[in-house]
Protein 1
Amino acid sequence: MRRSGDPAIDDDLLAFIRTSIKSVWMLELLLFLRRHAERAWSPAELVRELRGSDVVVAQSLAGLQGAGLIVQEAADAYRYAPAGSHFELMAGRIDGAYAQTPNAVVKAILSAPNDKLQTFADAFKIRKD
């Protein structure tokens, strides 16, 4: 398998990071929830624990839930609960890669295509009809 330039991040992991983790803050939230998987956390508790903003926490929770990495247990409580063994494996690999080579993981996140930017760019494409 071809490598992405860093031995800790192969192409499968790189693809998972780029499609599931939209920001470094979302990564930090995922790793926090993974390390505290025994309990559910309210957004207010996560804001306090991670010193984030309400908006960033809400967006990150929605993204992680959409990626199949966390679940909403109650009206206002979230817990790390991957949708399957593949998601658990990838989350563990992200955790390991971030511990070993944090800059490579950050670079993978930041180099992911931005959907909003792509949508904006697509609006200016000249179409041949």
Protein 2
Amino acid sequence: MKIVKPETQGFSSERINRINAVIQRYVSEKKIAGVVSLIARHGDIVHFEKAGMADIETGKPMLLDSIFRIYSMSKPITSTAVMMLFEEGKFQLTDPISRYIPAFKEAKVLDNTSGSGVQYIKPVREVSIHDLLTHTAGLSYGFDENVYIDELYRKKLWALVEKNPDVTLQACIEKVSKLPLAFQPGTMFRYSFATDVLGYLVQVVSGMPFDEFLRSRIFEPLHMEDTDFYVPPEKVLRFTSVYGPDEKAGLKVSDPFDTSRYLRPTHNPSGGGGLLSTTSDYFQFSQMLLNKGELNGTRLLGRKTVEWMTSNHLPDGVNLDTSSGFGLGFSVLLDLGKSPMLGSVGNYGWSGAANTNFWIDPQEELIGILMLQFMPSDTYPIVPDFRNLTYQALIA
């Protein structure tokens, strides 16, 4: 990675230093434990800074190569794996997922129009691979306490994972296939377990365990040496702890680095939220995308494939929010005037549950990455602060 003076890439050093001041304020006020932030333009890094602690209890400082749980920032990586197989002619995105995972053949849709209790109806068509990539399949996550389908996810899926830490990816996906769909496939957006299903699709189609596919086809070619589904013993000292707000004041640890479940290999690698990574590793992945599928002579995707992935794929009348649509694994900014943050039309990226976030701006050839470990994710506006501070520093 090449780090240059901000002015060489159109930034003001004085203005970009405002990022450090704001992030340090979050740390000093004990709202978050520590942060690593990165900004790059035209392939050169203009800001790569650390602040605070990786673990407060042991006094372990944050490092530039600290390892973070990236949670849903796993999704763009899994989607990339899917599209690599698509480019090899392994399937069409319009294919029903049951062609590769037969358990989905019997999927039923919850009939929300029925006034006589819980009723299921046959889907108008089967769930497709495209539906899974765009979260329009009708699957769910189990996060909404007041929704019947989410209650089923908690009872049937998450209870299985909690009781049996050795449960396999195949067993989890087969359990998902037996749960009802929330709506007819392809008609609505619902953030869901879909990307975990895609991880299993990669395993089935490639004939290779999902984690091995990612390692051999993405991580090793891009030199993402610290990205995996667990932290090996020799890297534990670089692993961060997750914090949340204390009931009284300050921070309370919710997942200590030295007792975390991520210290053990898993039989259920989650393509939707299970990866750990470093800021520099994720920069390698992001730069590959900004370069339209290529990095340092290694091409993972074709140029037109990346353009397709980062276009809005949601059906007419369906949006992610007031300003954004969704592509094949990423949010896509469609209306700058309706966005709560500075940016450019065409920005794409995603975030993780512990406030990790990345975005790519093709117009400005710009990448921003924010890594921290604090839950719940929307408690403080550190993500919009970081993004706005990045763009206010861009002067050419």
Protein 3
Amino acid sequence: MTDDERAIRELVDTWLSVSRRADLPTVLSLMTDDVVFMAPGREPFGREEFAAAFAGLKSLRIDVRSDIRELQVLDDWAWLRNHLEVSITPPGADAPMRRSGYTLTILRKTNGRWRIARDANLLTTETAPVPP
């Protein structure tokens, strides 16, 4: 594994860790100023919309499992395909909401640090199996 691949994997681990703690300043430091996020059913959005939505996560318990399936580095650009399993539990809830699926993330190395530049989130809500 190259130093760049290791640094990108550490970025993903850091992102997940600080997201669990709702540490917005650290999350923002992991993305470029011109970051674009894409999610099903909505228009692409940037850093400001991300920050506003992220602020609402403080009262939630979030657990995330990540499995990077592909990672390629091309000079100062990289991309990764990641499978995520997310469990979100609001205060007082009996059961968590579960989402899972893939993300496709493009990263750019700026000032010697890898940062997220584009992220396509394809997670969908998991549903309980219907009894026979």
